[in-house]
Write a structure and sequence with these properties.
The complex is a heterodimer of chains A (453) and B (478).
Chain A lengths: L1 H20 L4 E17 L2 E8 L2 E9 L2 E7 L4 H14 L29 H5 L2 H17 L4 E20 L4 E18 L5 E10 L8 H13 L10 E7 L1 H13 L3 H5 L20 E3 L22 E5 L2 E2 L6 H7 L7 E2 L7 E2 L4 E3 L6 H6 L3 E9 L11 E10 L2 E12 L2 H6 L1 E4 L9 E2 L3 E9 L2
Helix pairs in contact in A: 4-5
Chain B lengths: L2 E2 L3 H7 L4 H11 L6 E17 L2 E19 L2 E7 L4 H12 L14 E2 L2 E2 L13 H18 L3 E19 L3 E20 L2 E11 L5 H4 L2 H14 L4 E2 L2 E8 L6 H8 L4 H5 L20 E4 L20 E6 L2 E2 L6 H7 L7 E2 L8 E2 L3 E4 L6 H6 L3 E13 L5 E13 L2 E7 L1 E6 H6 L1 E4 L4 E2 L4 E5 L2 E9 L2 E9 L4
Helix pairs in contact in B: 2-3, 4-6
């Protein structure tokens, strides 16, 4: 892979050179190439075997204060010459936007930290090895509980990708990264003809960090079986405990309104709240792109700024937005190293390894304290309004009665506007595990509305 | 309906290949056995232009070019894709896809015959050919109308996304077909602010249309409508929580059908017996007012296709007739499994993905009730007019969809706007409670995109005004 990285670096740098020779006053080029595969099984037999070798190049070229973005999959010299000419022609349509200039030279990263993001063993795995893992995972899920009746399939997928970013300030760095994941879905038939599905997957940069097929299968089966007999409960306000997965989804929605695109576009309910308390004082939210082998780690951001750890929310107080260069200039602030680089188009903003800092409480003790409440294990739908912070989402999980998890619940909604939801966090678990790029421990919200029958 | 065969010479040249090479690649794909193979060539060009705060800030153009090679062996699929369209590149992909077949004799691909397709989306004035200044004028007209609508409008963003997708499909059972698929999407985003209150709204539409779309849908109307929704919802009250009658407005509410029943009838889930509609053809799954159709042949609609991504022609498929389940939506694998004719629903996001059974335009036919009579019949309930999206759990049929413009109904009349409304229900339960169905059928303007297994495809939805006697309204007010 390191050879591919070097090749991509020199390719990206050469496109920058050709663009400036063709008349671009500034240029930024992002190239990627790699291999992705998936092996799927169902009912003990192979069902899918897929492999692709994606490659693409994205260009952002400037003429003075005007810029345009293009994307191509053809790396030949002729094709690149045409794309450069097209991009420069497109800049004529754009109004001058001084804030959207190429990233400031003095802010660029001058080295690339080694974060161990690529495991060469992943690309070296044979299809048969992956097939065995998928079969083992499905078998474990089907065998874990007699009430599991049907397999929705298991799969092993992976990708090994080289990326390189170059610009006309002389920046040129590439790196390789890999992912591998194992996942399975199983179904348990319920008494009323409903089917209850349970799925689980584990993903990591390195092969030895993925959960075992057995463990993934057991978790998926347990998630299907514990929903047997689920139904709605009466409409009621009650404490809600969010498990780590659903709490992480809430955190992802909160990050969406910390992005410069939302703040600068006035479509974030937090747009004017910098320096104010936006969450309970026990809440601290951090983004750390430098975690070795982290799923969201990156040596530099999508514009070439050095990666650094940022505290977005400190003891409940909003400290920082996530800003790329353009939005930072528009807001009169400094960029934060959160520029994302989509394969096609101008940079947006994204988090890296985003997490809510763990508390001291065992998750069981958070539930123990609740006389009557809802333990949320699944969220569904698009019920978050970024402009107002209103939140209402389909939910499933279990009822908490007398400090114990009792009957399974589905077909309800959980609703609570975000300022209240984050303000009412009254317990945070110690169970933070960095098994996704956005992670949270168990959290409890003192009151939200459950709508049911 | 006119038919066309497309210009195959142009199509093959576009992908730097020819019939003989395609036949050799297919034979190589079947060299290790396998029952069926196909090649899916795609060139997709997309353009984006957006106006933000009266400035043209962003112009983008992208060209995607690649091929996917698929081999089927029983229920199993081998798939490989590449951007390398050289003969060697095609052979490498064929060899990778061929690995799914383990044993069995080699097959020869049958000589290809051209498939004639309907011509459902002839374009009068392609946006790609239009002068950039003409397109910019459309954006500015929408922007000005939105700003002029109300002084509380603080931000206006107008975006035009255009794409043309040229596909060429060659199958080992002897079919070759090409299609030219245009798509236009026009969106006005508005933020309204007053004091510390803030609200956003989007409006727009499009379809497989050219600039003539704007003759019937003025940019000003889209701008004013986005501004109207944002300012109306600026001071909306918190929605109630609990069981209430719900009246769904005509058009966009068709997303209910998409989530409540459409996904559950995609035959891959039924082949695998993971859908709550598995094995229920002939059973009652909705009230007798409900006749629900998936139809890929509506002229110029966002969800329409001249040919599906497996080379089969689209059709009008009745899913539910007077409340009785009649059939599923199929791709090649599922229709073979069930021994049926193709339904024309094998669709894929692009050459990097395998086809799956997908919806096209999904809608409910008009019923007998006057829409005003439907509202008047509700003592206390919710009227839902537009939506941000929905999601369903295929296995148990539970679905949810989020309302962006909703109102209380009190004493038979639409009254105050309410915010944060999420509607949750269960497919068969909910469709069993459709107690009134309006005469005012409407197809949504082209704005919906459906996601499944990580693949997005454009779809259409439609519905008349309908009343659901009781549904869980997920507000926060108890």
């Amino acid at each position: 892979m390191s050879q591919t990285v070097r090749e991509l670096e020199s390719f990206a740098a050469s496109v920058v050179e050709r663009a400036t020779a063709a008349g671009a006053t500034a240029a930024e080029v992002f190239a990627r190439a790699g291999v992705e595969t998936e092996v799927g099984v169902r009912d003990g037999a192979i069902e899918t075997l897929q492999q692709g070798s994606p490659k693409s190049v994205g260009l952002r070229l400037w003429r003075g204060d005007k810029s345009a973005s293009t994307y191509a999959t053809d790396f030949s010299a002729d094709a690149i010459a045409r794309v450069i000419a097209d991009t420069l022609a497109l800049t004529e349509l754009v109004d001058p936007v001084p804030e959207a200039a190429l990233v400031d030279r003095e802010l660029l990263a001058t080295s690339s930290p080694e974060l161990d993001l690529c495991d060469p063993r992943i690309a070296a795995m044979s299809p048969d090895e992956k097939l065995e893992l998928a079969l083992a995972c499905e078998a474990a899920a089907l065998a874990a509980d007699g009430r599991v009746t049907t397999s929705g399939g298991a799969s092993v997928s992976d990708a090994t990708m080289a990326r390189a970013l170059a610009n006309s300030h002389g920046f040129c760095f590439g790196y390789a990264e890999s992912y591998t994941s194992i996942g399975v879905e199983v179904i348990a038939d319920d008494a009323d003809g409903k089917k209850r599905n349970g799925s689980w997957s584990s993903v990591a940069r390195h092969r030895d960090r993925v959960l075992s097929p057995d463990e993934i299968g057991r978790i998926a089966a347990a998630r299907a079986v514990r929903q047997l007999g689920a139904g709605p409960i009466a409409t009621e306000r009650m404490p809600v405990v969010f498990d780590p997965r659903t709490a992480a989804s809430l955190l992802g929605m909160l990050f969406s309104v910390l992005r410069g695109n939302a703040v600068e576009g006035r479509s974030s309910y937090l747009a004017d709240r910098l320096g104010e308390a936006i969450a309970a004082s026990r809440v601290t939210i951090i983004d750390d792109p430098l975690m070795p082998r982290g799923l969201g780690s990156r040596p530099h951001d999508g514009e070439g700024l050095p990666s650094r750890r940022v505290t977005f929310v400190d003891a409940g107080v909003l400290q920082q937005f996530a800003l790329n260069s353009t939005n930072a200039r528009k807001l009169g602030r400094a960029p934060t190293g959160h520029a994302s680089r989509p394969a096609s188009g101008a940079p947006g903003e994204s988090s890296s390894n985003l997490y809510l800092v763990a508390g001291a409480l065992a998750p069981e003790s958070i539930i123990d304290d609740v006389e009557r409440g809802f333990y949320c294990e699944g969220l569904m739908g698009f019920g978050f309004n970024p402009a107002t912070g209103d939140f209402s989402s389909g939910a499933s999980g279990r009822l908490i009665e007398g400090g114990k998890l009792t009957r399974p619940v589905s077909e309800v909604t959980v609703a609570c506007a975000f300022p209240d939801l984050f303000g009412r966090i009254d317990a945070i678990g110690s169970d933070l595990v960095h098994d996704r790029s956005t992670c949270s421990p168990t959290i409890r919200v003192s009151e939200a509305t459950i709508a049911g029958v | 309906m006119t038919t066309q065969t497309g210009d195959l010479t142009v199509a093959f040249r576009r992908f730097s290949t020819d019939t003989e090479t395609a036949a050799r690649v297919l034979s190589r794909a079947l060299a290790r056995g396998g029952d069926f193979a196909d090649l899916f060539f795609e060139r997709r060009e997309t353009g984006l232009i957006s106006l933000d705060q009266q400035r043209v800030e962003d112009v983008e153009r992208a060209i995607h070019l690649g091929v996917g090679v698929r081999v089927l062996a029983g229920d199993a699929t081998g798939y490989a894709y590449t951007e390398d369209l050289s003969t060697d590149g095609l052979y490498r992909a064929a060899d990778t896809a061929a690995a799914i077949a383990r044993g069995g004799g080699a097959h020869e691909a049958v000589a290809a015959e051209t498939v004639a397709t309907p011509s459902l989306y002839p374009i009068e004035r392609s946006t790609f050919d239009a002068a950039a200044l003409d397109k910019l004028a459309l954006l500015r007209r929408a922007d000005e109308a939105a700003r002029a609508y109300d002084a509380r409008v603080t931000r206006v963003t107008v975006t035009l996304v255009e794409s043309v997708k040229d596909i060429l499909i060659v199958t080992s059972d002897g079919r070759v077909v090409t299609d030219h698929q245009p798509m236009l999407r026009f969106t006005v985003g508005v933020v309204a602010e007053e004091g510390s209150a803030r609200q956003s709204a989007n409006e727009g539409g499009g379809g497989r249309v050219g600039l003539e779309y704007f003759d019937a849908h003025s940019p000003e109307d889209a701008g004013r409508e986005a501004a109207r929704i944002a300012t109306t919802m600026l001071h909306a009250a918190e929605a109630p929580a609990g069981q209430l009658p719900v009246v769904l407005g005509a058009g966009d509410s068709g997303i209910l059908l998409h989530e409540a029943i459409g996904h559950g009838l995609e035959a891959d889930f039924n082949r695998k017996k993971t859908s709550n509609y598995s094995g229920r053809v002939g059973e009652r799954v909705a009230s007798e007012l409900c006749t629900i159709v998936d139809d890929g042949t509506i002229p110029s609609s966002r969800g329409s296709i001249n040919v599906d991504d497996e080379g089969n022609l689209p059709s009008r498929n009745v899913l539910i007739e007077d409340g009785i389940l009649r059939g599923y939506l199929h791709d090649h694998l599922s229709r073979q499994h069930f021994g049926l004719d193709p339904s024309g629903n094998g669709r894929r996001q692009d050459y990097q993905h395998v086809p799956l059974p997908r919806m096209t335009n999904t809608y409910m036919l008009a019923g007998p009730h006057d829409p005003e009579e439907i509202i008047a019949s509700v003592e206390r309930g919710i009227y839902a007019r537009s939506f941000s999206g929905g999601q369903v759990n295929i296995s148990n049929g539970d679905f949810v969809f989020s309302v962006t413009e909703g109102y209380l109904i009190e004493g038979g009349r639409i009254t105050a706007p309410v915010k944060g409304v999420n509607l949750i229900g269960n497919g068969p339960d909910c469709l069993g409670r459709v107690t009134m169905c309006g005469t005012d059928f409407e197809l949504s303007d082209g704005r919906w995109t459906c996601g499944k297994d990580g693949q997005s495809v454009p779809v259409g939805v439609g519905i008349p005004t309908v009343k659901i006697s009781s549904m869980t309204v997920g507000g926060s007010r108890t």
